[in-house]
Amino acid sequence: MTSPLASLPFSEPFADDVVCDQRFIEVSNFNFFYGKKQVLFDINLTIPARQVTAFIGPSGCGKSTLLRNLNRMNELLPGVSHSGTIAIHGISIFDPSIEVIALRRRIGMVFQKSNPFPKSIFENVVFPLRIMGKQSRSFLEETVERSLRAVALWDEVKDRLKESALGLSGGQMQRLCIARAIANQPEVLLMDEPCSALDPIATAKIEELIVELKKEFTIIIVTHSMQQASRISDLTAFFYLGKLIEFDQTQRIFTAPIQKKTEDYITGRFG
Amino acid sequence: MSFLSRQSNYWKRIDYFHLFCWGASIATVLLFALIICEIISKAAPAIQEFGWHFLTGSEWRPNRDIYGVFPMIIGTAASSFIALFLALPLGVSVSLFLSENFLPATPRHFFRMMIEMLAATPSVVYGLWGIFTVVPLVHHYGNMIARHSHSLPFLKGPAYGNSLLTASLVLSLMILPTIASLSRSALEAVPQSLREGAYALGATRWETILHVRIPYAAPGIIAAAILALGRAMGETMAVAMLIGNSQCFTLSLFSPSNTLSALLANQFAEADGLQISALMYVALILVILTLGTNFLGEIIRRHMQKITAEGH
Prior knowledge:
heterodimer; A: alpha/beta; Rossmann fold; six-stranded mixed β-sheet; four-stranded antiparallel β-sheet; 10 strands; about 35% helix; B: mainly alpha; MetI-like fold; 2 domains; two-stranded antiparallel ribbon; 11 helices; 2 strands; globular
């Protein structure tokens, strides 16, 4: 069964389509519930392609929950429900004809704590290709080199691709997880506080990488660090208690926020 | 000062407790050593008399004082490996079923409890059930199968109800809970982050199980299998009731056979003289076999863990 996503413009080049570029991901009137508890309230948000969008806000504000809805990861939890829509390229990701597996193959995700599989470095990167049944040795090798180069890990590990990924340093593991997430060339890269477990040097490397990767991917990053958001993102969304308070150019959010709450948060008065 | 003295009293109490724990641990080890010594000393006449030929001899004739346990060693190995072969895929499947969310939590716990109840059922009950249910089945279908495959030595007839296959079938049910519950712990120990990682890359539930959960849990599953094997090798009552207790060497699944433990259980009451010594020798072999199995299992588990960690 082929995915409807594959046959629609979603997976095709869309460089000329400026309108589509600007309205790449559209979240409309989105509410989300864990059981009876509502954690997201009427979220409306339009995310452009190939930019870095940062979700910021205090713990429990719903930023990670929204992120995990973009690739429907929340469906793995029991008792969740939602209303409203999220559309990518104008196609609702909740449409019954959309296969969640196909959706997740088009949207890479990087987690807070790096989660390499207990396999070799090589096998970690090619995992998404293996599960798609791609066998060709040369194709797999090309993908590994391209993905590892993209995360600036190739020179560090090219001589030990057969060794366990668990022998890498924390920063290397996280870059490996990014390489794995982009191996299948998704269009969107979701990052859930990817640097929160890393030291400042490893964090700087990942940040550099994110700026580099946005040439190819639409990146949405959840971060606790406002400095990080201001350094790397083009747009920033500020969430508070499950509501989207303000969404604008990062520069504007950090210099002249409209909402009082946003200002209080970015100046460190709460959070 | 009173504060200090109270402090020292406190430590004194802890000392007694430590002493008690040390004593208990040492007593356990000593007891085991004593049992082994006792077995070896009682077995000594038979060891002197038969030496290694005891292991290779295939005749067991108490009335002429000829003792060899080769058929029983083969019977023990065959029955426990067949049982493991049958129970492993079943047990791992059960553990997967119980560790995924195919069922809501409450019925899942119910299933889990029922499977663990299998382990709590007394061996003699399995034996009884085997006699009245499995023996007639093996007798009936065994003869049918044997008739159509008389050229194969493993399926040679005539099929007796009390046979190697009957014992193996019941054994497999008996070791199923060991495999299922130990594999389940191993599978549940797979970090949620790895499962999420696989799902986020577009893996299906099946692919996540096959490529992430089972490889990660493999050392635990192997340990479960080896422990179950050890249990099958040592199992006595049900096997003694079902295997037919024939001291003749046979390859056929449908023929009566014997295991070391069943031999012990059957002959101890009427044994005297060299026969007691020979049975002690059998007990020694059984202990070495089961200890060896557990030891081997531990080595394989550690080795596998290293491999998983290194990712070759």
